[in-house]
Amino acid sequence: MKAGWRWFGPGDAISLREIRQVGVTDVVTSLYEQAVGAVWPLRRIRETAKACRDNGMAWTVVESVPVHEDVKKRTGDFRRYVENYKTNLRNLAKCGVRTVCYNFMPVHDWARTNLHLELPDGSEVLGYDAGEVCAFELYVLKRPGAERDYDAQTRARAARLWKRASAADRKRITHALLLGLPGTTDDATPAGLRRELAEYAGIGGATLKRNLYAFLNEITPVLENEGIDMAIHPDDPPFPIFGIPRILSCAADIRAMARACPSKRVGVTLCTGSLGADLKNDCVKIFREFHDRIHFCHFRNLVHSAPGVFRESDSHLVGNTDMPALMLELLKEERRRGCEIVTRPDHGRKLDIDRGRTCYYGYDYGGRLIGLSELRGLEAGIRFNMERGTRR
Question: Which of 188, 193, 280, 293 has its CA 20 to 30 A from that of 137?
Fold first, then answer.
């Protein structure tokens, strides 16, 4: 396992020096200041790669090269944006960055309803409650037709929840669901989000999947020529939200993508926090089935308390994902390939030692440091047993 760590660039509250000190070898970053769809200056890619090298690490995974909404809808100026994407891939390859984590989720591609869920020890994690999402949709976003996407029981629960919610809770839910992507400051507004969602009216899941496959097949010649692996991030959460269908939420979706896109360069980021939000997903089985298309990993764990209600775990090793079994599959795949796979601790608890830092939610230093340490210790123990079994 190559120890990865997401870094949000020079403005990150966590320095590259600190990242190296926790045993990281591979930096996972992007040029967050670049507009979606723009061509990234080769000079900026080289500067970022050099900053990582100067601190004793390598920039090997870009997370992410965002896909323009026109490409997802295949409308407007999408052909130019596809060509720009190809240019960015070539420029990244010139600088040694050959794994691309990205997503194809329309408009709103990350959702939690509680960014400060306090645990008994005082640390904080991220949480999700489907009832709070429904309440936000019905009473804040007021998306036309939203009531048809929820059954009567969920709507009734949302009504009770919203009625008894304090002003602070209502603000907390609204802020969380309008939050911009990690690395951005582009938080939405209810009116703005409604407008963006309206642009997808009539575009169903089948159409979105066809558009994804078309995009991937268009860039595949560049992937093959430059030796680049595209690692799509699963939908988060892996079920419909705000009336938009999901397109990569389970094994069947990955299977369909693999059939439509035969190149093994077209693969997946195995994110246990996203896939694990649906209890029907077994991340170990998914790894086994698609082992040769898993190009990058996000490891963390979730705890479910009710259908559609979950939070991030106290530990990366404990939760609904069998992390020891998953780590074993990762190490077996590395042995087959003869090389290691970049894996980063995805999110971590907010601890008191980080109270003075302004980090993006889920990306505090102390919590991820513990997560990485847990994963590295698990790796060492499993590797020891694998090697001892080989000697016998």
Answer: 280
